[in-house]
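Mods, move this if it's the wrong board.
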Amino acid sequence: MKKSIELISNRALYYLAILPITCGIFAWQGWSWWSWVSGPVVSVTSSTESPEANIVTIKIPIGTYGQQIGEKLETAGIIRSSTAWNLWVKWLSLQNPDLEFKAGTYNLSLTEPLSVIADKILDGEVVKQSYVIREGWSIAQMAEYLETEGFFPAADFIAATKNIPYNKFPWLPENIPHLEGYLFPDTYKIAPENTTPEAIVNQMLGQFEKIALPVYQKNSQNTKKLSFHEWVTLASIVEKEAVVAEERGLISGVFNNRLEQGMRLAADPTVEYGLGIRQTKDKPLTYRQVETPSPYNTYMNTGLPPTAIASPGLASLEATLNPEDTEYLYFMARYDGTHIFSRTAAEHDAAIAEVERKLSSQ
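Not the wrong board. Structure tokens:
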């Protein structure tokens, strides 16, 4: 009996002795497995490829569950194990019950560990397509550019600009026929799956609201002469006329003087917009074109045209609210970006003759 008790005690001591060792082995094996399955598929140090060669593009549709994402990542070869992905997602869910992966298109690197890939999809670091809207572009020019860049047909964009989203942007003037002047020129990025005419219109209106609208609101002392819509309209004409930045305030001052004195603006860009043409140094506006009736013909009509003729940049918007104090009432383009400014009609006629003489001698 005593020997049996001793035998049992010895066996107990044996198992107690090997238990930590066994647990340690299992822990080591578990950690080794986790380190391997959660690590990057391609080691940065061993990879001979360029960083771009290790990028895999994957699209995660709306409504895709976390488990499905893991399966897609494993199938694409971006992670080693969907099981490891599910374990990691459960761990993250314990810390944040509202965990939500973002749908979209992602560029994921094979040199990144599972945790980094998960963070990118959680943060919504989707691939974005860029586009650039230039100062002074009209809606027609934007539409042509976006079609050329492969976004969508130009006609679809033009149609979208005629649908005024007052529900999202209640500051837009009432009864405008289109959004000319309010699509802010800037460099933008947008997710490919969101690339619709309406989304891009809203993105540009949002930028106008963020950057341009406060300019008008903060200059209330200078807005008594111009309504909000008149401000944008005049700024678009200043934008089209001012090629050299140093002349922008002076050109604004000339237009301000002409409006105050009841003179016609006589701005070539408004005629061009009304006729859908663009004059050049070799092919300037003809007298026949200038005498063609149009709501946008500021040689024939007093005051401002019914809408803007292009998208003014921030500098032109600011200059329109703060015109330079000047006695000039006229300016004539030299076709090198600069202008000759004049106080009287006689001086202006002399400037026109001078420019024509130089052009004919070239």
